[in-house]
């Protein structure tokens, strides 16, 4: 009886190999044979799952979105209080590269960025992800204002834009070593404290 | 009498060709022959100025720093008031991709980013540029506080970190089309207005 291979899992393992290459070197050196070598499988095996380099990169972009999404959800699950600003903090922590795994994802995201700007479909994927995050931040900030946790004159949509852009900039600073995970989070905390009543 | 060729200028023209490729496609497809084709010269001509792809990329990183530096200076030169917050705004405007030229530079910068994270020397160039910008922002904010333009309880070093990260995040948003130059500048203006007394 032949061994049953989980197609999705095998594709995932190959994408993980691409991940390690992209995080170290960008997308420049990514090729089907390079990925096969990194994954320790034959090029034919890679081609069984991905017909072309383009298909492999497209799958990786989707996987990246899923991983960021899962990380944000995991941060949210750790919030035990009813405090709306704790939820805002968890959302921002979910998009910051605070550990090795999220750091690798952020580097892969950076490697895809120029490609996303030039590719309308990939660009729309990026924008939809950003929009969703900003919308949820706005909603949580509006709730925080409604229950009197932040000042009545705070504009939730504006603050959501500021906090999201701040997290984006801090993320880059962590990657180059200008911030640690802790110092970046403390910048976020000071911003949130300033909004608090 | 042989025509005298300006070595620096010719190198610059070749780097400009690399620029256009990198802004469109990232660094993936950059090669000496591809750059020669884009610049409309022979590969031998390119090799006369750059011995290798690495040398070409190293020169481009330096040129990128110089261009950002020149743009910040140009923005500062346009400040006609003594208002310290106008200087802060000019510094931030200098690092935002507000027109085609700065947009192209920002895309080239993004293309270099993963490379910079992995390469200690390039990373230090990035960090030194960031440090200089944050230091100048801190100094100008401290001055603004000393002359009573911003509240006495504002921490210049913290605000400089926030504004610099904010500009970084807004820059990415402009590149993917989530912000226009105008809407990004208005986010900056609102942040500065909040600091004002």
TrEMBL record, chains A, B:
This is TetR family transcriptional regulator. The keyword Transcription regulation applies. Residues 8-68 form the HTH tetR-type domain. Coiled coil: none annotated. GO terms for molecular function: DNA-binding transcription factor activity; transcription cis-regulatory region binding. Residues 31-50 bind DNA. Gene3D superfamilies: Tetracycline Repressor, domain 2. Keywords: DNA-binding, Repressor, Transcription, Transcription regulation. It comes from the Bacteria. It holds the Pfam family TetR_N. InterPro entries: BetI_C, Homeodomain-like_sf, HTH-type_TetR-like_transc_reg, HTH_TetR, Tet_transcr_reg_TetR-rel_C_sf. It comes from Pseudonocardia sediminis.
